[in-house]
Sequence to fold (128 residues):
Amino acid sequence: MKHWIGRWLIGVSIIHTLFAIFVFRDVLTSLIQRGVFNTVGSDPMTGAVVWFVLFGVVLFICGLAISALEQSSSNPLPKSLGWSLLTLVALGVVLMPASGFWLAISPALAILLPRARKQSASSVSLLH
Fold:
Protein backbone atom coordinates (compact mmCIF):
# COMPACT_ATOMS: atom_id res chain seq x y z
CA MET A 1 0.00 0.00 0.00
CA LYS A 2 2.93 2.32 -0.60
CA HIS A 3 2.47 5.66 -2.34
CA TRP A 4 -1.31 5.81 -2.16
CA ILE A 5 -1.96 9.10 -0.37
CA GLY A 6 -1.38 11.44 -3.31
CA ARG A 7 -3.30 9.18 -5.66
CA TRP A 8 -6.16 8.99 -3.16
CA LEU A 9 -6.40 12.79 -3.00
CA ILE A 10 -6.27 13.01 -6.80
CA GLY A 11 -9.13 10.51 -6.99
CA VAL A 12 -11.18 12.44 -4.43
CA SER A 13 -10.54 15.67 -6.36
CA ILE A 14 -11.76 14.09 -9.59
CA ILE A 15 -14.92 12.79 -7.91
CA HIS A 16 -15.40 16.22 -6.31
CA THR A 17 -15.11 18.01 -9.64
CA LEU A 18 -17.36 15.55 -11.49
CA PHE A 19 -19.94 15.96 -8.72
CA ALA A 20 -19.77 19.74 -9.25
CA ILE A 21 -20.22 19.39 -13.01
CA PHE A 22 -23.32 17.21 -12.65
CA VAL A 23 -24.97 18.82 -9.63
CA PHE A 24 -24.21 22.44 -10.51
CA ARG A 25 -24.51 22.10 -14.27
CA ASP A 26 -27.00 24.98 -14.59
CA VAL A 27 -24.79 27.44 -12.68
CA LEU A 28 -21.67 26.41 -14.61
CA THR A 29 -23.53 26.62 -17.94
CA SER A 30 -24.73 30.10 -17.00
CA LEU A 31 -21.12 31.18 -16.34
CA ILE A 32 -20.07 29.95 -19.78
CA GLN A 33 -23.05 31.55 -21.52
CA ARG A 34 -22.23 34.90 -19.90
CA GLY A 35 -18.63 34.74 -21.13
CA VAL A 36 -16.85 33.50 -17.96
CA PHE A 37 -14.97 36.74 -17.26
CA ASN A 38 -16.37 38.62 -14.25
CA THR A 39 -19.53 36.48 -14.13
CA VAL A 40 -19.61 35.59 -10.42
CA GLY A 41 -20.64 39.04 -9.27
CA SER A 42 -22.53 39.15 -5.99
CA ASP A 43 -24.60 35.99 -6.46
CA PRO A 44 -23.75 33.78 -3.45
CA MET A 45 -24.77 30.54 -5.22
CA THR A 46 -22.53 31.26 -8.20
CA GLY A 47 -19.66 32.16 -5.87
CA ALA A 48 -20.14 28.97 -3.85
CA VAL A 49 -20.15 26.82 -6.99
CA VAL A 50 -17.01 28.50 -8.32
CA TRP A 51 -15.21 27.92 -5.01
CA PHE A 52 -16.48 24.32 -4.96
CA VAL A 53 -14.95 23.70 -8.39
CA LEU A 54 -11.73 25.56 -7.54
CA PHE A 55 -11.34 23.54 -4.33
CA GLY A 56 -11.40 20.38 -6.47
CA VAL A 57 -8.62 21.81 -8.62
CA VAL A 58 -6.53 22.79 -5.58
CA LEU A 59 -7.02 19.32 -4.08
CA PHE A 60 -5.86 17.82 -7.39
CA ILE A 61 -2.72 19.98 -7.32
CA CYS A 62 -2.02 18.96 -3.71
CA GLY A 63 -2.53 15.32 -4.65
CA LEU A 64 0.00 15.68 -7.48
CA ALA A 65 2.54 17.28 -5.14
CA ILE A 66 2.07 14.66 -2.43
CA SER A 67 2.30 11.87 -5.00
CA ALA A 68 5.59 13.32 -6.27
CA LEU A 69 6.91 13.55 -2.70
CA GLU A 70 5.91 9.95 -2.01
CA GLN A 71 7.70 8.70 -5.11
CA SER A 72 10.85 10.80 -4.82
CA SER A 73 11.79 10.05 -1.24
CA SER A 74 11.84 7.19 1.21
CA ASN A 75 11.34 9.69 4.03
CA PRO A 76 7.88 10.03 5.54
CA LEU A 77 5.72 12.90 4.35
CA PRO A 78 6.05 16.05 6.45
CA LYS A 79 3.92 15.92 9.56
CA SER A 80 2.75 19.46 8.81
CA LEU A 81 0.91 18.08 5.75
CA GLY A 82 -0.93 15.58 7.92
CA TRP A 83 -1.85 18.16 10.57
CA SER A 84 -2.97 20.67 7.95
CA LEU A 85 -5.10 18.12 6.15
CA LEU A 86 -6.57 16.81 9.42
CA THR A 87 -7.41 20.36 10.53
CA LEU A 88 -9.11 21.08 7.20
CA VAL A 89 -11.04 17.82 7.41
CA ALA A 90 -12.13 18.47 11.01
CA LEU A 91 -13.35 21.96 10.12
CA GLY A 92 -15.14 20.67 7.03
CA VAL A 93 -16.81 17.83 8.94
CA VAL A 94 -17.95 20.19 11.72
CA LEU A 95 -19.37 22.72 9.25
CA MET A 96 -20.77 20.15 6.79
CA PRO A 97 -21.09 16.64 8.26
CA ALA A 98 -22.90 15.39 5.14
CA SER A 99 -19.96 16.02 2.81
CA GLY A 100 -16.96 14.40 1.20
CA PHE A 101 -14.53 15.76 3.80
CA TRP A 102 -14.67 12.35 5.48
CA LEU A 103 -12.73 10.94 2.49
CA ALA A 104 -9.59 12.80 3.55
CA ILE A 105 -9.40 11.44 7.12
CA SER A 106 -7.52 8.28 6.08
CA PRO A 107 -4.79 10.11 4.15
CA ALA A 108 -4.34 12.66 6.96
CA LEU A 109 -3.96 9.91 9.56
CA ALA A 110 -1.69 7.89 7.28
CA ILE A 111 0.64 10.86 7.05
CA LEU A 112 0.67 11.31 10.83
CA LEU A 113 0.72 7.75 12.17
CA PRO A 114 3.65 6.09 10.37
CA ARG A 115 6.01 8.70 11.72
CA ALA A 116 4.72 8.13 15.28
CA ARG A 117 5.17 4.37 14.89
CA LYS A 118 8.66 4.85 13.45
CA GLN A 119 9.68 7.18 16.30
CA SER A 120 8.37 4.83 18.96
CA ALA A 121 10.17 1.90 17.33
CA SER A 122 13.44 3.82 17.24
CA SER A 123 13.08 4.83 20.90
CA VAL A 124 12.51 1.19 21.84
CA SER A 125 15.65 0.17 19.94
CA LEU A 126 17.64 2.84 21.78
CA LEU A 127 16.61 1.27 25.07
CA HIS A 128 18.06 -2.12 24.09
User: Anything to note?
Assistant: The chain has two domains: 1-73, 75-118. The mean pLDDT is 89. The first helix runs from residue 5 to 23. The two ends are 30 Å apart (CA to CA).
